[in-house]
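C-alpha cells for chain A. Residues wanted.
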C-alpha cells in the first residue's frame, strides 16, 4: 500500500498510476497522480514518486509539482514513467489538462527526469503549438524510452 506523505481528503491520490522497472536490480518506480492536491491552490495537483525495492520495501522519494502550477491546473490527472535507456534514471510525464497558459483548459504536460537517488528535475513543459480553449492537452500522457541512449 502506498500513501502520500502529506495526503489529505479529496486530493484524488491514485486516480492515475504508472509503474516502470528501475535499473537492473529488480526495483520499480511507481508514479502516482493526485490532481486534487491544493499545493498551489485548489486542484493545482501533484504527483508522487515511490521506489519499491525487490524485497518489498517502499519509500516516497519525491513529490512533483509544476514549476508554474496554479489553481485548477489538475497536474497529475495523467502520469507515465519509463526507464531511461540503460541507466538507473527514469523519465516521467505528468499531464495538467486544466492549465490555462494558452486559454482556459488548453492544457499542458510536464517532463521530469528522476535520478537513481530519487531526486527529480523538471526538464520541459509541453503545450500544443495550436493550443486553444478547452483542448485539455495532457488529459492522457504516455512515455517510453528507446535504444540504450535514453532518448
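Reply:
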Amino acid at each position: 500500500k502506498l500513501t502520500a506523505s502529506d495526503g489529505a481528503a479529496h486530493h484524488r491520490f491514485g486516480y492515475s498510476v504508472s509503474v516502470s522497472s528501475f535499473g537492473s536490480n529488480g526495483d520499480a518506480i511507481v508514479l502516482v497522480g493526485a490532481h486534487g492536491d491544493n499545493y498551489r491552490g485548489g486542484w493545482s495537483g501533484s504527483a508522487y514518486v515511490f521506489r519499491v525495492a525487490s524485497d518489498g520495501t517502499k519509500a516516497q522519494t519525491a513529490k512533483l509539482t509544476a514549476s508554474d502550477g496554479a489553481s485548477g491546473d489538475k497536474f497529475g490527472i495523467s502520469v507515465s514513467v519509463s526507464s531511461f535507456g540503460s541507466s538507473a534514471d527514469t523519465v516521467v510525464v505528468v499531464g495538467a489538462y486544466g492549465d490555462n497558459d494558452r486559454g482556459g483548459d488548453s492544457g499542458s504536460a510536464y517532463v521530469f527526469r528522476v535520478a537513481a537517488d530519487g531526486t527529480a528535475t523538471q526538464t520541459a513543459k509541453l503545450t500544443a503549438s495550436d493550443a486553444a480553449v478547452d483542448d485539455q492537452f495532457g488529459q492522457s500522457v504516455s512515455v517510453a524510452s528507446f535504444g540504450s541512449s535514453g532518448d
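The CA atoms of residues 95 and 138 lie 4 Å apart. The first strand starts at residue 17 and ends at 22.
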